[in-house]
Amino acid sequence: MAQVLSQIRATRAQPPGRAATDPTARRTYGAALEQFDQLFTAATVSRAEAQPLLLFYALTQAGKAIAAAHLADGVHVRGHGLTETSVAEPISRSQVEPQSKPGLFGAMARLNDSGGLSGVVELGAVWAALPIDLPEVILRDWLPSMRVWLPVLYSDDPLDRFLGHDHRQYGVIVPPFEVKEGQEIADILSSYPGASLARPHMTQGLWAEQHTPFGRGYGFVWELKDAQTAVLQLHTLLPRYGSQREHWLIPAVGEGKDLLPPFLLWWILLFDLSLLARYQPAEWVAAVDPDDSELGVPLEELLSEALRTLPGLILAELTERNPTAP
């Protein structure tokens, strides 16, 4: 994490995109990243009772730097773009919806070629959609992201390997819950946009079951259009997250059945947790109490995961995109 934070700081001397040539964008970029750095550092030495406040506002300041560098109107973006519609017990049932003005969240969605959030979504559904290991308390109520193992065939990069000449890609979907047969996975795949081109892989009429580094899974074949677009399709359908070998099926979330990249999922999640911590402090402190709340330890682990994950996501948002986005 420290190395990635240093890489983020290093971009201030040679900022990306519009911040390299526009003096106003450059000032905004540097100032916002300084605030990100201080807030994030404070979050690393804080505890769960206050961490969501520091983490979300660190994220928003990083978002301001991203917008300043990569959007023509980036320095003028205002507002969260999200609002909390209800606070529930347990807090995983709390709800968030988009505001009429897209704000900073809308700017991040634009840069990620995403339609963003189009309707109400429960906090637990967003948590479950994150491509991370999930606690049982979340798995029992919401559809989770699922790892997809692309076995080693001909090269070190699974995205370069296809079966036959019809541009098919074989993969093993590894559910984070117990299943008796592959049909249990097939029955829920309509909720996973990344499975739109997948069909079951059968051997003599039976599900192809395979053991992977991530556990037992079931074989599917992705029918891709052509060799020229196949790699791009797989990056879109089965994005990498975590290690280079981890590809994921991410479920659509909320009333609008929105497919959101991990960066936006984290944004929504930390937005809602920060509101709970700020405006419902007693309820939030109770929620993270490991003596009385079944969400206590999972929430602590979630915030620790945010500390590990956000710097890398932010660095990618700053440096790995087209600097002439509208």
Structural class: alpha+beta
Helix content: 40-55%
Shape: globular
Q: What is the count of β-strands?
A: 11
Radius of gyration: 20 Å
Strand content: 5-15%
Distance between the termini: 31 Å
Q: Which spans of ≥5 residues are poorly predicted at pLDDT below 50?
A: 322-326
| Largest sheet features | 6 strands, antiparallel
- Continuous helix count: 11
Return the average pLDDT rounded to an integer. Answer: 89
Can you write the helix and strand succession as a string?
A: HHHEEHEHHEEHEEEEEHEHHH
Count of structural domains: 2
Describe what this molecule looks like in 3D.
The chain has 11 helices and 11 strands. It is α+β, with helices and mostly antiparallel strands and 326 residues long. The chain folds into 2 domains: 208 residues, no CATH class; 104 residues, no CATH class. A hairpin with an 8-residue loop joins β1 and β2. α1 packs parallel to α11, α3 packs across α9 and α3 runs parallel beside α11. The C terminus is likely disordered.
Features:
326 residues; alpha+beta; 2 domains; six-stranded antiparallel beta sheet; 11 helices; 11 strands; 41% helix
Topology:
Elements: H1 2-10, H2 23-44, H3 51-70, E1 82-86, E2 95-98, H4 103-111, E3 121-122, H5 123-129, H6 136-139, E4 146-149, E5 168-174, H7 183-186, E6 198-200, E7 202-203, E8 206-207, E9 209-212, E10 215-223, H8 227-237, E11 247-249, H9 262-279, H10 281-287, H11 296-319
Antiparallel strand pairs: 1-2, 2-3, 4-5, 4-11, 5-10, 6-10, 7-8, 9-10
Helix pairs in contact: 1-11, 2-3, 3-4, 3-9, 3-11, 5-9, 9-10
